[in-house]
Write a structure and sequence with these properties.
The chain is an alpha+beta fold and 175 residues long. It has one domain (1-67, 100-175). Helices cover 28% and strands 8% of the residues. The chain has helices spanning 2-16, 23-29, 111-126, 131-141; strands spanning 30-34, 36-37, 42-43, 49-53. A hairpin with a 4-residue loop joins strand 2 (36-37) and strand 3. The protein starts with a helix and ends in a 34-residue tail after the last helix.
Length: 175
């Protein structure tokens, strides 16, 4: 779920607000928390961190309702090998340990900037920007917002754009 929120946020910033992603604006809109289990409570071994939209942001962020069930996930996912040339980190079989530096919230010195950005986003949402349009834009352009790219989405140049991830177009039904 967190990757969906981050991907949507980058798309909103770059494709609609025409700005670089702003970490304090992200922290204004979303909250993060450690997921714990057991008694005594420990950070969960897998999926120990969650992102969610803050209820307080109300209608200032495009509305979308993510899937709330993981049923059938194995039909759409796959495993990849750990390449020898650049291997993934070793699995430690340990739980993350919460650090004092894991704080959340925007820098209060950035409050004015964040409020200005939110007002611009409010205008877009009032004009009809919703989650469907955000993710339609993302999938139609075939751009990977979390990958290294040559330029931001507001400079997207169509199918010949170097950030276009695939030469194949997706049909509206696939999108």
């Amino acid at each position: 779920m967190g990757v969906l929120h981050i991907t949507g946020f980058v798309t909103v910033c770059e494709a609609f607000l025409e700005m670089e992603s702003h970490v304090d604006f992200f922290r204004w809109l979303f909250s993060g928390r450690a997921l714990t289990a057991g008694n005594p409570s420990e950070v969960t071994l897998v999926g120990g961190f969650a992102l969610q939209r803050k209820p307080s942001v109300g209608g200032s962020y495009p509305v979308y309702i993510p899937c709330d069930s993981n049923r059938g996930w194995h039909e759409e996912w796959f495993y990849i090998r750990n390449p020898a040339a650049a291997p993934f980190s070793a699995f430690t079989d340990g739980r993350p340990k919460k650090q004092d530096s894991w704080s959340w919230g925007y820098a209060h010195t950035e409050r004015h900037k964040v409020e200005v950005i939110e007002e611009e986003l409010w205008k877009l949402v009032r004009d009809g920007l919703d989650g469907v349009r955000v993710f339609h834009t993302l999938y139609r352009r075939r751009v990977a917002p979390l990958a290294e790219r040559t330029h931001p989405m507001w400079e997207y140049g169509g199918r010949s754009d170097p950030n276009h991830a695939s030469p194949d177009e997706l049909s509206d039904d696939e999108i």
